[in-house]
Every structure is written in structure tokens, then in C-alpha cells.
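Can anyone check this?
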Amino acid sequence: MKDTKEIFLIVLITTKDRPQKLQRALQSISNQKLVPDVVIIISDCSNKFKILTNRVILQFENNLRILHLKNRRSSNMSGSINTALAFVKNSHYNNDKTFIALLDDDDWWDDTYLLNCRNFFIDNKVEWVISGIIRHDEKYPNGVFQQIPDKITVDDFLTTNPNIQNSNL
């Protein structure tokens, strides 16, 4: 079992021109029972939203250790995540003792999300944790839990939505 005190917890947030949603995402991280060691925000913001995005980030710098990176790759979520992963790799974190969680700027987590994922990671000695999600929409304003399947195949992604997205990895 990995020693829980040795696990370095990183949260990656991709953002583009949605400072109000980023604020909600950061608030959900700030409210976690297990606060991450570092939050890396990868921005694809247009000039119009750079100042507003920076203001939102400044609101949380007393509660969270935040690094703000500009996306250096293709202008999309994949490019942003790859920018952050390259940064983490070049920062020489110990891969065996680093847990990375992904959060879209328009999503938020329950306050025990990181604690539960980290505990599952340690207790089950896995390399990936994919949690279920709670979807909030007009039909379910209070949220509806969307379970992920116990077993996933390539066909599941081609023919259905197995409820796996960036914010539950």
C-alpha cells in the first residue's frame, strides 16, 4: 500500500473564457476535505477574458497553491491537458506517488470527491480512478447519479456514453 502521506495530489483545470464557471470549480476544490497540494489551471482564454480569469484565480491563492499555465499546444481540452502533463513530467514529481485529478471549468466536485478518489487509489493499488458522476440539468436540477459500468470496452464508447468524462478521471 502506498503511504497516504507520500501521495502528492495535483488537480488540473482546463479553462477557456468562462471565469464565472472557473470560480465555481475552484470553490469546489477549496471546499474539499482533502485539499490538493497544487492546482494547475491551463488557460486557453481569449484576450477579452484574461484579466477576468486572473482575478478569479487571485481570489483563491490564499487557500490553494495555484499555478496558472497558458496552453502551449492545440487550442482545446486535449492540448491544455497535454500542456499540464508535460509541465508535471518536467517538474520531476515522482510518478508512483503522484495522483492527478482532472476538472473542467464548468464542473464541480462534492466536498469528499478527492478524498474518496485518493483512498480508492491507495486501497485498490490502481493506476486510474474513474468515478461516477452526478448530472445536474433542467430535468434533474438536484442531480441524478450516473453510474459507470464495471466493465468497459471500446464498443461502449462507439455506441453509448459510459458516463466517463474529463471531470471524473
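Reply from J.R.: I decoded it. The chain has a mean pLDDT of 86.
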